Structures are given as C-alpha cells and as structure tokens.
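hiii so um. not sure if this is the right channel but i have a protein structure encoded as tokens and i wanna go backwards to a sequence. like what aa goes where. can anyone help
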C-alpha cells in the first residue's frame, strides 16, 4: 500500500490574527498498489497538458494545487483518476479547543505527529505486507527525524509482523500522489473552514473515514 499525506490550514493559535485558520486538516490518500499510483500520475500529467499548459504564452505550470486550480480543472482531473483502488482518510482539528500546552513550538510538533498517527489508525492495514508513506518535504532535518521515529514505532504496532514500512519525504512537484492528496485535502479544508463544499461533494463518496477532532 502507498499512502500520501498532506495538510491544509496552519497550526497558529492566535485566532484573532488575520489569516490564521480556525481548522487544521490532515488527509491521507491510500492507494492499493503501484498501478493505482501510475493511474494518478497519468491523470495529473494529462490535466497539466490539456488544461493548464496548452496555451502558447510560454507560461508553464508544473504541478496541480488545491489553491489556484479552478473547479472545472479539478473535475476534469477527477474524471481521469483510476476507478478503484484508492480511498481518502481525513481528520479536521478544531483549533479553538486545543490545550495551551500544545500551542507551543514543541507542542505543535507533538500535536501534528499525534494527528498523523490518529488518522493512519483508520486505514485498514491488517492484510498489508508493505506500506510506503510519502509526506511532503517541508520539515527540517530534526522534524523529519522526530516524525519518522514516532510514526515508525506507532505504525509497526498496527502492521502484521511480516510487514515492512518505509517513510519518504518528497517534493510535491515531483510526486503526483502528493499533488492528488493536496487537491483532496484542500477541498476538505474548505468544507470545515468556509462551509464551501463545491469541490468536496465531487469526491466525498471516496472518503473511507472522516472526523472533526475536538469538535
């Protein structure tokens, strides 16, 4: 199984500050095997070629993003995804109810890691012999080390004894899977942050698990 992880919103806790989100969302895109990932890659490349880079003005877009991509383009991309073999798992954090000790620099790291583990617990891993977890490469070296160690110890307890686990940090531009989960995560974030479900309702039936934490 290949799992892509992304987040939307921020972990700032001064909710009176302009631009600070009220919600923070972590979303997983769980793919059954490499053939599904290849199908997602094809959908991304086709959308970039046919919808975003077909004009002759010289401007080139190299990745799909939840922000800045029109609903029509998102729908086109969605129609070209594999018909099965993938599901979405997501958790939205209600930041207003987070304890002050978790709003510190160290607390935020623990909170992020906890939420990642929390949503991973809802992915059916019982019959999996290998898990590849792909995360956007936006953390520093120390944060990557802490994240990997925490998730490694937590996930190994959920996996069968003979299963293997690899955690990779990649750039979203180089990973169509990360671009895909970014698109879905943005739609879920918009649902909780702004009550905008225009994109969410297109893919909502593909969600295997969804919850609001501290609602």
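sure thing!! here u go:
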């Amino acid at each position: 199984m290949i799992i892509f992880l992304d987040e939307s919103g921020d972990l700032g806790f001064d909710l009176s500050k302009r631009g600070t989100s009220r919600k923070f969302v972590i979303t997983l895109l769980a793919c059954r095997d490499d053939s599904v990932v290849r199908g997602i890659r094809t959908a991304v490349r086709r959308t970039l070629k046919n919808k975003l880079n077909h004009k002759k003005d010289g401007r080139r877009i190299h990745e799909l993003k939840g922000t800045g991509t029109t609903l029509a383009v998102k729908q086109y991309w969605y129609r070209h995804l594999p018909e099965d073999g993938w599901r979405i798992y997501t958790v939205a954090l209600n930041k207003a109810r987070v304890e002050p000790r978790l709003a510190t620099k160290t607390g935020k790291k623990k909170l992020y890691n906890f939420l990642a583990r929390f949503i991973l617990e809802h992915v059916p891993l019982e019959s999996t012999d290998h898990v590849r977890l792909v995360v956007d490469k936006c953390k520093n070296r120390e944060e990557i080390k802490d994240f990997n160690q925490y998730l490694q110890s937590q996930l190994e307890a959920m996996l069968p004894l003979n299963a293997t686990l690899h955690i990779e940090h990649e750039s979203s531009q180089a990973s169509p899977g990360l671009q895909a989960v970014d698109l879905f995560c943005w739609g879920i974030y918009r649902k909780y942050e702004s009550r905008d479900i225009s994109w969410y309702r297109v893919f909502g039936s593909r969600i295997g698990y969804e919850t609001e934490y501290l609602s």
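oh and The chain has six helices and six strands.
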